[in-house]
Each structure stands twice: as structure tokens, then as C-alpha cells.
Design a protein that fits this description.
2 domains, 7-stranded mixed β-sheet, 14 helices, globular
Length: 418
């Protein structure tokens, strides 16, 4: 397993939960429960590779809290993921679902692997074995996975099929983020990026910034970053820079996103795109802009680089991209941060719709789904902003306050068993 900043990820989340609980005088019973994960499953499972070799992979599924409903959270395939990181991501999902106002708890899953080095058949075998091993806690009424870093709708399809084979009938509601052909929802693929776009525009409106004059920089060219960039451009913003894991490209006059995405599909990277200057991810984060969307992995913004950030607004498309030290520096410098549990909640909002559609076998059109997403994102943003102004705290603290108030109410009403 990896070592480094993500080894402290869960501790960082726990500290913020504890601090806000004490600030809000939340009952000690609620605070201590939220400091720990309810269930943690670690599995080591063998996979036969295409060359006949048998390799053992390690996977996790962690449920942080399910007081408000079935636990919900993505599955990550990444070579550097570890249990502490999964715990942190599960806790963030608990907070995110509460902020978004959907009746879920929080969970997260992962397999330590590099999906880019696996063939399609190896990836399928790994996914099906992992799904069969976590089936003891997974289910449409208990714990519902979704895509995350390194996973996609096809992987969700394999998980759904594996679970269904064990039940003897199709169970489309066991995962979200599936292909449309087997019960996926219109608008789900773009949902997280769309939520980031809505959050960015609401933040811009709050600061009196005209979208038609706004400049945008995006770290990350995966589903969230690419979708967010495209949707902000459609709203009239000028996307000046975007990056992937290999680096970024910059053009102050604006980037041709359609051409850029085509190059990304063809070559696997944005590097070398025409009429654009190449720069590193570190340099991209320090560009002067109105809106900076951080949509890569955790800890993009840390104590060392936070003083150099020149954005007016930061929208956290990734989970946990800002360390506590960096958050304080950025806020002290007057940067308006839309935190991850608010900014990227669009995915879980539409996942909720997909889950309901799977349970009821009733489907909504894309316009209806997008309108629902915008309505819930706007409501959540408005509530968090109100708490921020009322209590004179930053948006992250206000988002935690919003979530913890909902969670404390649910846990208090339910009580402690037995």
C-alpha cells in the first residue's frame, strides 16, 4: 500500500467532524459514532491473468454511516488507494448525501490495481470476483455502489450482473452509474460535472461575477473535469487551461474543447494540443483565473502551493482535494471555496434518481433529471451559503454544519440499539 498524505485523510475528516460537532453542541453520542466507520471489509482475492498467472488483489468496502438510509458510494480502482483513504471517502459520502438532501448514508469501495495495465477480460474477472466478495454487505436496500476513479458504467454493469446471478433475477437498483441499456439514468454520466457547473455559477453570482466574462482553469480531464469544463464553456465562460495526469495545456484566449477532447481520446493525453502552451499540473493550479475547478485526486491543494493560488473561486470536483492547512490559507486569502461535499454532489443526486427508477421500473427523461439536479444543488448551495454568512464561517465548515445537523437528528430519533 502507498504511504503519504492520503494516510492522514480519514484523520483530517474526523477532526473536522469533531470540531464542528463541538461547535454546534451536537450530542456526544452522535459525535463519537461519526468518528468511526460502521463496517469495514478487506478482501484478498485471486485472479487468473490472461497469461495463466494467478495474482492476488486487495480490495475494500467501507460503510461509514447508514443512519439516514442505505449506504451509497463509488468504487475506485487505483494503484495507490489504501484503507485509510477509503474510510475518508466513505465519511465524505455520508456528509455529501446529507448536504444534498437524499436519503442515503455513506460508503466507499476500492481495489488496489492499475486498470490501465489490465486487459478487458482481466478487468471483468477482477470486477466480478470483487463484486461477489462484497455481496455480503452490498444490496439495493443496504449498500449501493457507483463509479469512481478508474471505474465506469461497464464495470457497474458487471457488478450488477454478478449480484443478479447470485439472486437468480435482475436487480438493477444494486448499483448506479450503469449503462442506459440495463437501467441506467439519463444524465447520470454528466451529473457530477453538471453539479460542479451549477455550483460554480452560483458562486459567481454570489460574488457578482458575469459568467460571460469569467475565466476558468480545470485540473483533471476525466469525466468530472471534462464535463464541467464543457458545460461552463456552454454557459459562456472562457476555459483557458485544462490538464490530465501527464500535464496540462494553456491558452489565455480560450481552448477549443471539442478538439482537445478528440486529442485526449486519440492519444490518451491533452499534452501537445495545438495552439496551446504546455504546463505542469503545479503550474496550472497557480494560473490567475476567476474559477478553478480541481477535479483530479486528493490533496491537489496543500500548504506548500496554496499561497500561490490566484483564483477567485475554487470548485472542488474531486473528493478531498484541499488539505486543512491549505483550506485555511486559501480562505484567509479571500478565495471562495465550494467544498467537495457540496460541489460534486450532482453525481449522488442523480444516482438517487437512478436507484428510485430501478426500484420502481419508471424512468425520467434527461431534461427532468437535469432540472431535478439543478433544483437540489441550488437548494443545498443556498442553505450552506446562508449558514456561512449567519455563523461567519467558511463554506466548508457551513457544509459540514448542514450535514451534521441532518445526521444528528436522524441518529437521535433512531436512538442506540439495543
Amino acid at each position: 500500500m502507498s504511504t503519504g498524505p492520503n494516510e492522514q485523510a480519514f484523520q483530517n475528516v474526523r477532526k473536522l467532524i469533531s470540531d464542528v460537532c463541538q461547535q454546534m453542541n451536537i450530542a456526544e453520542m452522535c459525535r463519537v459514532r461519526l468518528m468511526e466507520c460502521e463496517r469495514e471489509l478487506t478482501i484478498h482475492f485471486p485472479i487468473k491473468m490472461d497469461d495463466g498467472e494467478v495474482r492476488v488483489f486487495t480490495g475494500f468496502r467501507v460503510v461509514h454511516n447508514d443512519s439516514r438510509g442505505p449506504s451509497k458510494g463509488g468504487i475506485r480502482y487505483h494503484p495507490d488507494v489504501n484503507l485509510d483513504e477509503v474510510r475518508a471517502l466513505a465519511a465524505l459520502m455520508t456528509l455529501k448525501t446529507a448536504v444534498a438532501g437524499v436519503p442515503y448514508g455513506g460508503a466507499k469501495g476500492a481495489v488496489i490495481c492499475d486498470p490501465r495495465t489490465l486487459s478487458q477480460t482481466e478487468l471483468e474477472r477482477l470486477t466480478r470476483r470483487y463484486a461477489s466478495d462484497i455481496a455480503i454487505i452490498m444490496g439495493p436496500d443496504s449498500d449501493i455502489p457507483a463509479p469512481d476513479v478508474g471505474t465506469n458504467p461497464q464495470i457497474m454493469a458487471w457488478i450488477m450482473d454478478t449480484y443478479s446471478m447470485g439472486r437468480g433475477y435482475s436487480v438493477p437498483a444494486v448499483v448506479t452509474g450503469k449503462p442506459l441499456e440495463i437501467g441506467g439514468s439519463n444524465g447520470r454520466f454528466e451529473a457530477t460535472g453538471r453539479g460542479c457547473m451549477v455550483s460554480a455559477l452560483l458562486a459567481a453570482k454570489h460574488l457578482g461575477l458575469n459568467p460571460l466574462e469569467a475565466t476558468v482553469v480545470v485540473q483533471g480531464c476525466g469525466n468530472v473535469g471534462a464535463t464541467g469544463a464543457d458545460l461552463l464553456a456552454r454557459e459562456g465562460c472562457r476555459v483557458m487551461a485544462i490538464s490530465d495526469s501527464r500535464g496540462g495545456v494553456y491558452n489565455p484566449k480560450g481552448i477549443d474543447l471539442e478538439g482537445l477532447f478528440a486529442r485526449k481520446r486519440e492519444t490518451g493525453s491533452v499534452i501537445g494540443f495545438r495552439n496551446a502552451e504546455t504546463l505542469t499540473n503545479a503550474e496550472l493550479l497557480e494560473l490567475k483565473c476567476d474559477i478553478l475547478v480541481v477535479a483530479a485526486l486528493e490533496h491537489a491543494l496543500v500548504k506548500a502551493n496554496a499561497p500561490s493560488v490566484k483564483a477567485r473561486i475554487i470548485v472542488e470536483g474531486a473528493n478531498g482535494p484541499t488539505t486543512p492547512d491549505a483550506n485555511k490559507i486559501l480562505c484567509d486569502n479571500g478565495i471562495f471555496i465550494v467544498p467537495d461535499i457540496l460541489a460534486n454532489a450532482g453525481g449522488v443526486i442523480v444516482s438517487y434518481l437512478e436507484w428510485v427508477q430501478g426500484l420502481q421500473s419508471f424512468y425520467w427523461g434527461e431534461e427532468e433529471v437535469n432540472n431535478y439536479l439543478r433544483r437540489l444543488m441550488t437548494s443545498a448551495f443556498t442553505e450552506v451559503l446562508h449558514l456561512s454568512q449567519l455563523n461567519k464561517v467558511d463554506m466548508r465548515t457551513a457544509a459540514y454544519m448542514t450535514a451534521l445537523r441532518q445526521l444528528a437528528a436522524a441518529m437521535t430519533i433512531r436512538g442506540v440499539f439495543p
